[in-house]
Amino acid sequence: MNIKLLGNRCDILDMLKELLPDIDFSDPHWGVLATETYSIEFNIGGKDPVESIMLHIRGEDAPIDVIKKICSKTAWRAIDTSAGDFIDFENCPEESFNRWKRYRDKIIDEFK
To answer: pTM of the full predicted structure?
Structure first.
């Protein structure tokens, strides 16, 4: 299998810091972008050059604008692991996140 590399770690960190000035890369393998309504953890791992980045998203809002900004800058594609497909930024990209929130809220309500 031929894996297309994203780039070298330093260039990727510099690009993410430029796009997202509030991102914290105190740990160069694990960045954090925290806002009042969501957080994104950027798991870059230890390989250099970088093969992939896993985003761990938590919160009340889907930060689809952040993901789209990164993909637009880099020509990378983002996979929605809940849906099992690439995110289509032109066709309701936050629907999978909203579906997850409805499920989460249903489970929480059952325990009230």
So the answer is: 0.84
